[in-house]
Automatic annotation (TrEMBL):
InterPro entries: Amino_oxidase, FAD/NAD-bd_sf. GO terms for molecular function: flavin adenine dinucleotide binding; oxidoreductase activity; UDP-galactopyranose mutase activity. It comes from Pelomonas aquatica. Pfam families: Amino_oxidase. GO terms for cellular component: cytosol. This is NAD(P)/FAD-dependent oxidoreductase. Gene3D superfamilies: FAD/NAD(P)-binding domain. Residues 14-497 form the Amine oxidase domain.
Amino acid sequence: MSRASALIIGAGPAGLTAGLELLRAGYPQVTILEGSDAIGGISRTVNYKGNRIDIGGHRFFSKSDWVMNWWRDILPVARADGSSANARLAYQGQQRLLGGHLASASEADDAIMLIRSRQSRIYFGGNFFDYPLKPGMDLVQKMGPLRCLQFAGSYMASAARPIQPEQTLEDFFINRFGRQLYLQFFKDYTEKVWGVPCRDINADWGAQRIKSLSIGSAAKQALKKIVTGKTDTQHTSLIESFLYPKYGPGQMWETAAAEFESRGGRLLRGWAVDEIHRQERRVERVVARDVSGQRQSFDASAVVSTMPIRELAQALRPAPDAPTLSIASGLEYRDFITVGLLYRRMSPKVAGKSRHVSDNWIYIQEPGVKVGRVQVFNNWSPYMVADPDTVWLGLEFFARDDDALWAMSEDALKALAVREMQQLGLADEGELLDATVLRQPKAYPGYFGAAFQRFDALRAWLDGLDNLYLCGRNGMHRYNNQDHSMLSARLAAQAILNGGASRDAIWAVNIDDDYHEEAPTKN
């Protein structure tokens, strides 16, 4: 420890961002420990026989110019015609220029990002609905005038007498959409994702993810467009287009990892953290082990952790006091299963004469099925699919590591996925060519449970460790997207470079602002 050294736990978006920011600023020694052999965490890309799987779907769009520029510095933006100098990323009412010094990039290059169109819809009763829901004739035709009048009346009742204080996710949805729309389009899907009733989930989740969306604001925008032909540029809705690496999100982080190592950083794959030793309020060393059981000790002047907080607290030696350790041990998570299904084509009933629909995601609201969303990987990037004459789908199931769904064998999960696609009328079993299963533990930090209600006390104790910095999704137990994780990592790196600044700025990321798919700001 004669020279300053930083140890980073995890090679996902947060860990790699922190590592690169430190090295770019001239920090002398930086080591990243990654427990798996893969790079990118939940943002990695898995290659199955040339067909690539994006775990959960990652749109590369941020309201932070710093993040957008950081991505473009790693992978330049290209258009099919090679005119990236004039490329613009569109979102409702506004645009952003993406070219500049990256004008030489073309789609023929491998190390690029593509500009992709966004479309996600809700599938219910054999029909597709806009996501997010939009009032209009399409909704009336599919749900019927009487049902839509009930939706409108329910919304007006909620708007006249909103639930106060707004404590649960159920309160949040009802206040913005009305009880009837909540029951029809939000309750079942959300509870499928989280595995608990909406009334048991903290309203903070809604505030971070869909703060500015409501049926009232959507109706106002629709009416304004009819009357004036314009939308309100000060209140944007979801993005219309986004950036996406040619070969999936993992390409971004594998390229970032290569730069990290080329700058002298040490990246150790397959080394999982076992113990974190501290002296009073300072971390002194970290002990990790590889798959063979070999253990190694690492000293560090500063430690950046992106590992799940529950595991972090349990690894501390000596352990935190009993109340603090109890909070950490009680934190809950949701796990994630992706079943990749390769078809010749989707059902003509939904795809028409095309091989597949145009959606990135399809949100499944149908009762009686376990699948929550379906990704159409062809629409994220055509280069995600080995054979362009096939359709590569990712069926997303939400589970917990001790439930029956997680315990199912791979063959049983494949059979379940194929059966539900047939049941939904999205794809016929006879068109199936291949299938695979991918499991992702701790994909979502839980915003529920008694421990989560006491999270602030755990955070305060961990922030009291002078040279430990938490960032990322699981590192902060916060539903961060990758741009939020990157911003928290940037601030952690700045705090280290400044000799240990307050953690308040790190925790301020993704707490007060609108969801990242809203209008951009500079930061």
